[in-house]
Amino acid sequence: MLNQRRTKLEDLTDISIECIGLAKQHLEVIKSLTDVKLMYIHCYQLMKLGGLEAEVPRLVVFGQQSMGKTTLLDFIMGGPIGYSSTDTGTKQPVSIIMKPLTTLNTLKETLKENMKEGSKANLKEKYKGNEEILLNETNSIVCKFNGRFMTIHEVQDAMRVHMQSLGQTILSDELEVEVYVPNALYAIFVDLPGIKDDSKVGAELTRSVVRNYVSNNPNDLYILVKKASDDPSNWPWSLKEFITSSAPAGLGLTPQQTMVVGTRAKEFLLNEKTDIKTYEELVERVYKRGVVDSKGQMLPLHLLELFSLSIQAKESGDFLSNRDDMKAQISTSQKQIYDLLVNSFNSTNLGDEDRLKEELFNIFSIDSFLKTLNHKFQSLMTNQLNNLERRLVRKKIELERQIAAMDGKLSRFSPQSLRESIKQFIRQLIEVVHNMITGNYTIMKLPIAPEQFMKIYGGNLHDNLQDGHELALNLFPMPEMYDPEFYSKIMKRTEVLYKKKLTMMDCIKPGRYVRYFTSRVNSHMFGLIEPPSRTNNSNNGLDINFDLLNKDYGSDELINVEFIQINNGVETSLHKNIDRNKLVLLTPLPSVSIERLQVPLYAWHKTQASTGWVLVRPIIIDRLPPEILIQKSNYREVDIANKQISFRYLDESSVDNTNVNTSDNEYPVNQRGDSGAGLGAAAGASKDGKEPKDAKDNLGASKDKFKDKFKDKYGGNTTTGSSQTNPSSGSKEEKENVKYGDRYLYFTNCSEIYLEDKTSTPYFNSALEMVSGEHADSNLLNQLAFTNVSHWLKFHIKHMEPEQVYTSGVLYQMLRSIHHVVDRADWEPLVADLVQSNVRGTLLHAARLSACACAAALRRVLRASLSEVFRCIQINDLDHSLLGLSESLHFQEQIDQLSEEFCRQKALECSNDMRNLILEQTYSIQFDVAVDIFDSCNEFEKYFINTNKYRGHMQEFLNNVKENMAIRKRRLAMNDLFEKGDTKNSIELIYEEVKVQFWATKMLLSSPLTSKLYSHFIKNVLEKKQVLNEDPAIKLEAEFEEFLQSNILYEFVDGNLVPKNNAKLSNDYDLNVKFDRFIQKYNKTKRILEYVTYALEGITKFKHHAHSEEVVNFLSHLTL
């Protein structure tokens, strides 16, 4: 398998001190040089020290086996070196660094000086065997492999052994060989293993090596070698895809960095001249042998005739003679190819003959190939040096910025007093927690979106209840302490109540009258629900009719309400979409069932303001006509619609309907004219809003009768018009009024009176929103999260009923005997026992779940606050001495665990306090407490509600409760337990009393239980402790702060709580080790900066010389 990809400059993380020293030496050499070709070698070795050799362009030769790859490489290097990768294996690329043989003279001089100093023994250890002889060679090739000098054949053998030792491992690292050649140029070549096709395993192996090298070295110049006669269209599909396709399936080479060389060009021409005779055909045949890239662009193509040495010449090792033989063969082959092109082909178009000849000569010419090679390599080198210099500059600036930041952090890892730093951290945490709960922490300024922050750390009521349930199961493992099924049961009960609420919303339908209070004019507007005005893109009449028929409102849809205004007999309407929570349904008095008609009756009177708007005013009816209370027939509504009824206005002293400031232009209105249906018309009125004349006469006669009856009943005087004008002056119907007590008594038709529909209920989007309000489904981290839990607890306390039911035998057994009385038993202790048994179940479970839910909400707040404190420390928004502490994983884990433990502890404490409160209340049952509750309500109504305007309810309720409780108590006391003649037996009476006492108990507990939640999870967490006679010099911490300090800064030794010293804390949180790691990272960064500085200086000088002189001039050493 392949190793990891080559390191990039941007990913450089470390470099050794030895490499820094060598890099400095290479830089000094580069600065002293004027030969750009030698600079090229030293810059390559300088970049290689950092693993960045791929940043310097090199010449790479690859292709199929036996295609002349080695021959081409020998030609480019200046002579037949004799190296071949065919027999050395296919596991690793081979990098050949070629230098002139004269560069060994420096090494020879060093040897002579060392021998004079008497260090010949050490030299023999360093240069063994024939290495010393090789250093004296002048005409042979000398190689250096693995630190040893050897011949080219010895290199072949050593490389073969190395490849075999790798087994099946494939390495992307290059195997480097230095080759010293007489009169050679300075250059770096890479020989990739020949691509095999003899077996599937061999093909995959060699292709893996080539593909991995090309992907890791995008800056090299690649030469693809193939036979001139090979047509790529006939290649196997796998080979064609590998060479021509884009990465990762293929190599992804482009014309800017690739050349194609076809060998055995003379053989190709000899074969082609037997089939074709024209230059046009030959050009077509040549380009068919070309290779295209993944985008269909032709790669530069050259067809060359090279050389071939005999076996004896190869084995002789005489480089100079073999080089002369090579040049002679290539020169002869070039002349033969020239003759073939001139004499064997002609042109059908004489005008294009010279152009075609020139094009073919460039393809088959050795000099043209070398010129193209020089140009491409020089262009690639220039572009890469410019790019590399820019990247080195960016890397240096980045490293300098890191060093500056690390210099600033250096002091932050060694605080003067670790104890003080921990105390400061805790204080910062308490401050963030306080701001988070109170809503003063500005989450809009965080680096992440506030919505994302709340999504990560916040939780809604359902989340807190779910987490609280899991915590309760952990804290109270016994079923009698907390029922494992309690959460699912109570959530099902909530859903049942929610569905019941939804079914009560079915009355929100078109055609119903509604009351809508607008604070803008301080009036209750009278409206009619219209069908939904849904948007329809289609203009088809059928679609419009279908929309009108669809009169049902969605659960979250706004209600379309029509309001009426009448000015000068012209009726206009306003349509407005209103939230259903702001609407109250009204039912006309004639349509109300007789059971609801009990005086005093509070209702609404439809009237008209001076501005013309139809509205309703609150009234009270003290007496109902006898005709209304008689159920006659199905036509009762029609029969009593015009019956007169007397009433009194409840808002008469504070609101004068004649001066209601309802603006005519408050909303845009639609002119309807007299033909519009009057929404305020009573039952039986005409469609244009006017009453018939006979109806008006009958109305006048009815008024006279009511005035006479009123005089007989109350002895009062009736007045008309002048004493008090009826506010509904705009209507056709005139109203009479009579002074009654401190209010006027008015008369109107029954059809003008409306009662509120008790079945109407506000809309809720979810069951939990019904329980806790509109923010129940929001992710929260402030006090509202705890308030939601309090509302949830109050809601379920309100709907709780006694669940424990026992058999009559159990109840009879628990009846207390009365001393010296045989046929009577005391039932009151039994009621107390039954109340306690019911409270111990549902109410205790609900209290424990609510406490654990608040603990879960607090845990979310602490988790978010810890994250913010750590973030602020990292960006240096908090004290600089906290960095080392905040980066300690042990400290992070400990304070997170302590936060969770604190929440668990608060859940237990709150649960125990709530349990004690519940038990205290049930152990001191007062049978008259229900009367006391209603008595308090009566006092509240008497002193805090202005009862002068209307007669209060609570006094009547209180009297009924007192009477009912006295009767029940008397019946229980006098009832014979063994008689069954009563409508209700003793057991039923006892259970009724249990329900009453359970209701009274839960009403008394509702507010104190929620107060416990506030005290434990908000007040005690945030506020500092208060004690009597507090000493101003003593600072008292909040409960959470004290909990953290006692568990972090102190430890128990022999049962005593003793403070930890700084050394102990540093050892616990690995601050010393962390400081050492920081110093290591700091030193690594400084070494990388030093290396990048050396590399930048060397590349900059090399680039300056490379722009004015060719880096590698292949023509200068290969002149034929």
Automatic annotation (TrEMBL):
Residues 59-233 form the Dynamin N-terminal domain. It holds the Pfam family Dynamin_N. Residues 687-714 have a biased composition (Basic and acidic residues). It comes from the Eukaryota. InterPro entries: Dynamin_N, P-loop_NTPase. Residues 715-730 have a biased composition (Low complexity). This is Dynamin N-terminal domain-containing protein.
